[in-house]
Write a structure and sequence with these properties.
Arc Repressor Mutant, subunit A, globular, Rna Polymerase Sigma Factor, Chain: A, single chain, mainly alpha
């Protein structure tokens, strides 16, 4: 790694675990998440001269990763995905431990909320971004992020309480 300041390299390497976690929350697939992180690092490396030293590198990298993710989605419009995990659910994998079952229920509930809500919830609740930083990453207003997080939490709680829930509580109330 040459061409970039040592502080840039150090900060970039330190953020790789957070980038990978965010990528996995978006892609919901380890291989795709790794590819997203790799693409993010490559793009950040190519554009390191445009990064202003002393600004929020974490938010800058998360924005790059998010943009890579949505660019990939646009490119894959013609591909068929197992979005609702119907194929995966048919695979015979016995859950031997309660924690594994609970994790699967959580993943299913998290997967049932909208991508925008899931993204906001992960940025705020898992990655520790402020609402302002998350709004900047998502390219929307702070109030929109707050609304998405609130709705995501409500829907997630309802789905965890009743995994067979067909409608989200917010839709049922309208």
């Amino acid at each position: 790694m040459s061409g970039a300041p040592d502080s840039f390299k150090t900060d970039l390497l330190a953020l790789l675990p957070s980038l990978r976690a965010f990528a996995f929350s978006l892609a919901r697939n380890r291989e795709r998440a790794d590819d997203l992180v790799q693409d993010t690092v490559i793009r950040a490396w190519e554009k390191h001269a445009s990064f202003t030293e002393g600004t929020n590198m974490r938010a800058w990298l998360f924005t790059i990763l998010r943009n890579c993710f949505y660019s990939e989605i646009r490119k894959r419009r013609r591909e068929v995905e197992d979005v609702d995990d119907a194929h995966a659910a048919r695979l015979p994998v016995p859950a031997l431990q309660l924690a594994h079952i609970e994790l699967e229920e959580f993943k299913a509930a998290l997967g049932a909320i909208s991508a925008e809500q899931r993204e906001a919830l992960i940025l705020i609740g898992v990655s520790g971004f402020s609402y302002e930083e998350a709004a900047e990453i998502c390219g929307c207003a702070v109030g929109t992020v707050k609304s998405r997080v609130s709705r995501a939490r409500t829907t997630l709680a309802a789905r965890l309480a009743d995994p067979d829930l067909k409608e989200t509580p917010l839709l049922a109330a309208q």
